[in-house]
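Sanity check record (used in CI):
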Amino acid sequence: MFVHLKSVQDGPAPVTCPPKTGPGVKLDLGWMKGGEMPTKRHTPEQVINKLREAEVAMAQGSTVGEASRQIGVTQQTFYRWRNEYGGLRIDQVKRLKQLESENTRLKRAIADLTLDNQILKEVSEGNF
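Expected output for Transposase IS3/IS911 family protein:
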């Protein structure tokens, strides 16, 4: 649609907008709802079991993409899981997660104590 130019004496030319369009085309990919992967946290046990399922599928000739779709994750998630959990048993993964959470807790405690120590030093020096 074109805007017709009028002379300056007729006033400003009317502005027209293009017609509204509907939503874009959505793909039905089956395992993905609405074109996006659902956000879901998996327990370490679930991750190990899904990795085992994928390994079996790939041993039977499936590609990584097919195997990852079969277990309901993206290829990126599959590779990340394989790098993090590959070759570990369930009890080892549980211990790893336990140590990681303890490490995080201890780092927070150190940060709090360091801040307290710094505040006490500043107060004792009178630099406030």
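The chain has a mean pLDDT of 82. If this sentence no longer matches the regenerated tokens, the check is flagged for review.
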